Amino acid sequence: MSRIEFMGSPMDNLSMQESVNIIETNVANGAFLQHVVVNVAKLVHMQDDSELAESVKACDMINIDGMGVVLGARFCGHNVPERVAGVDLFHQLLAMSARREFPVFLLGASQEVVTKTAETVKRLYPELCLAGFHHGYFFDEKGDNEQAVVEQIKTSGAKLLFVAITSPRKENFINRWQDQLGVNFVMGVGGTFDVVAGKVKRAPKWMQQYGLEWFYRIVQEPRRMWKRYLITNSQFLFLLLKEKFKR
Questions:
Q1: Which pTM was predicted?
Q2: Which CATH number fits domain 3-196: 3.40.50.720, 3.40.50.10700, 3.20.20.80, 3.90.550.10?
Q3: Which end of the chain is flanked by fewer CB atoms within 10 Å, N or C?
Q4: 18-26 long-range CB contacts below 8 Å, 24 or more apart?
Q5: 62-71 pLDDT, tens per residue?
């Protein structure tokens, strides 16, 4: 894999198909691969959250999700082939898993959403072996509930695990328990289950291509999203200019 460093974070300069091929080979060979995507918000948060930064840097594959990061990296001289969106990679890997008969486990979101997601992926990929699913509201101070969920995943026989929990909790959970999950591949997928279950609509293709998904989210949820994106995008722009002129 061709790895670059941008804004203090390592990233793998891979296309969608290259990413799928590497993951398929690793799972088939019984090797473990920890995956993460980086986007504008995650890069910004990594500047001040050392635990999140370490969790991301510990991953074996770091895909670039978000056109803001793709365009920013290109602006700084990196030859990034394309965006590898987490939700698109999720579907590509489900199709591959159905074809290769790799069992998968879905973890995260509410019970209603993860149940609907499980039903939807079984309809979309009839040959898929769904080893199990569990909601994402199991965290406690002592970690006892985490241990029980990890044991459920381990005994399910799953080879691929998809974790739809908010950042940075999902990255830190994966990094903390990776050796005990019993899977060959684990990927944090953020709000993907909400999209698959139909709870949240994804931006039109043309908006995705021009990096305007953040604007679409603001239109959908203006009260909750406008301040978050205004602050995060402003911080990213400052970091981008800093990165450009330090080179």
A1: 0.91
A2: 3.40.50.10700
A3: C
A4: 19/61, 19/63, 19/84, 19/89, 20/89, 20/92, 20/93, 20/96, 22/61, 23/61, 23/93, 23/96, 23/185, 24/96, 24/100, 26/184, 26/185
A5: 999 989 999 9
